Amino acid sequence: MATSLSSSAQIHAQYGGVVPEVAAREHAMAILPVVESVLHQANLELGDVDGIAVTQGPGLLGALLVGVTFAKTLAAALKIPIVGVHHLEAHLYANALEEPLHFPALGLLVSGGHTSLLLWHDYLDWDVLGETRDDAAGEAFDKGARILGAGYPGGPEIERLARRAKERSLCLPVADLADTLDFSFSGVKTATKSLWEAHGDKPEEIAYALQQAVVKALMRNLEKALDRYQIGHIYVAGGVSANRALRDAVRHLGENRNISIHIPRIEYCTDNAAMVAALGYRRMQAGKILDIFEGALATLPLV
Ligand code: KG4
Ligand code: ZN
Which residue lies with its CA nearest to atom 13 of ligand 1? Predict the structure, then answer.
């Protein structure tokens, strides 16, 4: 498999987060070189391509429009089919890059904009069991890092700080939405702010407490779901699944409950095109071709 990735994270870091206009411009500049580079790596030409998969949503409309318009134009010129994929569903398909998927399974999707727990019946067939009611897990890390004056994206910065924590005695509360499988991370952000005001000399300890709180909330709902459904496999995906503490906690759960745990290798946890192609391939085989009148969608529910 050949992949190519262009990241504008360093540019966004200068602003402390993603500026939509900047993201769209960077996409417009990067898209052609990325396509050329991947074709070069694979030793292929445009004429060898059988189909195109593109992220249709959800996300920042400007960046999505660049991708969808580029893909549609290329597909029309080459007279090949195009499939639109859901960005979050694609994250879970990063797992299909390593091996065939096993069903039924639980899917835990943890990214910068979303946190969802899915009951996965088969390829292209799942039910949403729970979602975040406010901030996403990655957002909790990003906002926490901003509070601590650490860089962007916040997740890796919090993980780095947390690794240096020695006392590990500070604690942050995280919401438990009782008998639902939903999540809520806005409270932990407020609590992080208060803890920082009280312990401004302990960024490592606070980062550790934040990481523990987010991981705990995710694990709690995975455990609740395992109590309710007969499941042999758990798939974790999305940028936050790069977090070592989360990976270890999920693997530990798998050992305790005799469940197979699947987490993509780090480069396929965060945004990448290989996962889009993996899902696009399935959708294309199932005949789910994008209509020329369909476009980019800033909001696209996972239903
Ligand atoms: O999936 P992704 O690359 O982009 C979205 O679709 O949002 O996820 C980005 C999110 C950011 O919030 C980032 O802080 C978080 O994933 N992230 C991490 C780590 N690496 C990235 N969170 C915790 N620990 C990490 N090592
Ligand atoms: Zn993503």
Answer: 155
